[in-house]
Amino acid sequence: MKIASSSSSPLLAVVSSSGSLDPKTSGSLGSRILPATQRSSPSDNLLRCRTMSSNYLRHVESMSLLPSGAGRVTQLNAVVLGESLASEENDLIFPSKEFSSQALVSSPQQYMEMHKRSMEDPAGFWSDIASEFYWKKKWGDQVFSENLDVRKGPIHIEWFKGGITNICYNCLDKNVEAGLGDKTAIFWEGNERGVDASLTYSELLQQVCQLSNYLKDIGVKKGDAVVIYLPMLMELPIAMLACARIGAVHSVVFAGFSADSLAQRIIDCKPKVILTCNAVKRGPKTINLKAIVDAALDQSSKDGVSVDICLTYDNSSATTRENTKWQNGRDVWWQDVIPKYPTSCEVEWVDAEDPLFLLYTSGSTGKPKGVLHTTGGYMVYTATTFKYAFDYKSTDVYWCTADCGWITGHSYVTYGPMLNGASVVVYEGAPNYPDSGRCWEIVDKYKISIFYTAPTLVRSLMRDDDKYVTSYSRKSLRVLGSVGEPINPSAWRWFFNLVGDSRCPISDTWWQTETGGFMITPLPGAWPQKPGSATFPFFGVQPVIVDEKGNEIEGECSGYLCVKGSWPGAFRTLYGDHERYETTYFKPFAGYYFSGDGCSRDKDGYFWLTGRVDDVINVSGHRIGTAEVESALASHPQCAEAAVVGVDHEVKGQGIYAFVTLVEGVPYSEELRKSLVLMVRNQIGAFASPDRIHWAPGLPKTRSGKIMRRILRKIASRQLEELGDISTLADPSVVDQLIALADA
Fold it and tell me: GO CC terms for this protein (predicted)?
């Protein structure tokens, strides 16, 4: 099916008069007190913040005027990179003078100047950056057009409309033409030690062109959907780039989703072809991906959506052709056809607002949402965020541990790095296979300088002996990064102190599938960091914290995180459901994009993400709708009803806690518990498996039948003293029954 185009603070002590960081001054920060004549009372500071409400970044700018808001700075330590350990939760971690002097953004003052321009002159700011890319035709006089207020009409966002470009050309051809043809584009590391490969930019371009020519030959045209269900082989970014080259819209599905989930996505976008491989090894386990695809295609055909071709890569390290089930006339071996095609392919030039990809993300209604990103704005934004958030240099070797089945793999494995001509490491296997030192072995092997991973992996590796880290050099590391969920301060400090030897700044990024790229992130050479804080907004981003009525809250506060105004990387719609797009993201707080996340801002203006506020659970960086899990559980013949909530998990950030009411007369048993978990694994995927099944004779409901999830969350987290008033429940005795069964 065609997819239509989208017609003073402590920082006063660290900023010198020139605006640069001053580690010498910062060293005595904990005891530095300004004279009373230079200090303001808390009420004065709050008033000042409120009177600056029209300012582009008032909470940051005020920090250059007043020292924290309360005068004395208590219990505050200053740490300079490479000189001492980060130990306390209120540490400020400063980049070294050497790092800052070479950074793209080297001081708070430079950051504020750039951010101020991006707010006051977004058209000029982003036009200047966009002009660094190749455009077959420049955009018109209007750089962007937006309406984020449902009260003023349909929501729409457009950037660089009328500009004609191609993101594959900018990722590959442009780099080759600039003399980077012999530079390594991809270092590929296999699941097993000693299995590796690489491609230069010239070689990558040739392989992309061969696949593009094949797709054109089988009838794939501009706007057609192509589903990609591949593990982390080099063929995955090749497939994405090949689709982009010919204007096809790729929909990458994480190769851990079940046949049911894959079928759901196939039915929604109706692809011309699906690209997969026969199997993959993750750690010691072999996963037969082709069998999952076969089941999904059978299911989708029963629902009226048939896919004519299944192009299958022969991953001989995982299984053999002989052991791969085959359907003649539909299934085609990748290696039998692709190498026969020419190594050059004409580019399909597209409008900046033409679709680039669909990526399905979990929603609270049970049906995944097809997030649609377009070409031009996404290209400019991902390239720019990658460049500045990681302080990218042409000599860097970069590794992001994310899978391309998620937005991180789109923006920061494939597009963002390659638009900057970076050398990227792609790893097929599990990060702790065959042992917990594998990550650092790979870092040393490829001399990786930028390492971007999830807090889940950090917490997992923290549980093992430090020798797995210290037995490797890691001297090549320069910048670390965190993605997927808030990183807790203890994990941040372990990552900083042990992995980074107390010398590598951490880009703790906040963003979403919907935002396309980083929204709130440290810039490594500019700002002092606080362990666990995402720091300040990226250029062009104006985050606001609102209360439940949608009123903006000033100064130090907690509330709902929204964004005012559009940015180039923003998604344009939910595929086939613009009404849901508006209802989910723009109706909760009219005039703003609502992120669905809670957020706190401290007295220094630093942003701290507190997690989801809706019915989506963030498990190891994977957003899983509670309704999806509940639906899978309820499909079990012995399950009468289920309610799912998220709970804190030491390793995964959040875990899935399921309350299950069984059919009358069915006894509780371990065998049934395992069967329920298996039902979820089969319908959604192993990553969505409930961590706990809590037997529930009944669920706490209002008289109207609404399940009181607030109460379930308190029971799940054993915060029984915070249950609150339960007298309004239809049957309050259910709560005591659930508590009694809590440890059953």
Answer: plastid
